[in-house]
Here is the input.
Amino acid sequence: MKPSPTKRQALLIKLRWTTVIYSVAAVVLSAVYFVLRQRFKDGFWGFDFYLTNKAFSIASLVLIAASMLLTGLRYFKKVTPATFALRKHLGLAGFFLGVAHGVASHVLMPEQFPWPGWVLENVWSSALAFVALLIFALMAVASSAKVKGWMGGERWRLFLRYGGYAALIMVAAHAGILKWESWIKYLKTFSSVLPSLSLPAVVFCVVVVGLRLAMSLGKRRRNLRKDEGGSYGRSSKMQR
Ligand code: HEM
Here is the structure.
């Protein structure tokens, strides 16, 4: 039975508030991590807009990856329908934080990330971020029921599925290209005590993509078994 419009509205408000709480928690926890890391690495306490922007970027990556993780977890029956309903909202929150991070980097901190000089110097990483953000923007538009109707259910599902994972891999690569040297230095020396937070965040993305691959494999095996069962049934009927 479908919930009444009032119940649906109440559910939507609950989902949005839960997403706001998770998003604020992701930004605050990332910011605390960066402050601690700076204390260990550079020897002083401090918090500024530069670290805020880093917290935005990590929160964006983690929320987008978490939104996709829910698909894999649902397949393996590890989430309730109520938690699964958060998927779209977490993805949208991650997208908006990604936009905030892009704007903060190049518009609000032009001394650190001058435009277009920085982008030309980091052309691969920047191109991946732009294309991914464009895909996420199209996905945000496609998340409306109107667009779903216009695209047709199957095309809509395929776009959200492949577009989403492709864009997730692109933003993980965007972070990986920028932070690779820092990761390697940490793994060789452990000198900063804590690694760049981008390292566990990208490992989380790898786990999410791995789970999606395991899900595809599981589905293919199940379909094969069904086909074999079907053709066995048919051939035994024919023999009879
Ligand atoms: C959803 C989209 C995006 C995600 C998830 C994302 C994620 C990240 C991550 C995780 C980092 C490494 C942060 C660190 O630990 O230092 C990073 C760095 C950076 N990103 Fe993005 N990014 C996105 C889009 C963009 C866009 C569109 C731009 C440019 C317009 C951009 C510009 C930068 C810059 C300049 C840095 C270096 C920041 C620093 O060293 O502090 N990103 N991004």
The pocket of protoporphyrin IX containing FE is lined by residues 54, 57-58, 60-61, 98, 101-102, 105-106, 113, 129-130, 132-133, 136, 171, 174-175, 178-179, 196-198, 201 (CB under 6 Å). Residues 5-239 form a domain with the Four Helix Bundle (Hemerythrin (Met), subunit A) fold (CATH 1.20.120). DSSP finds nine helices and no strands in the chain. Residues 97 and 177 are 20 Å apart (CA to CA).
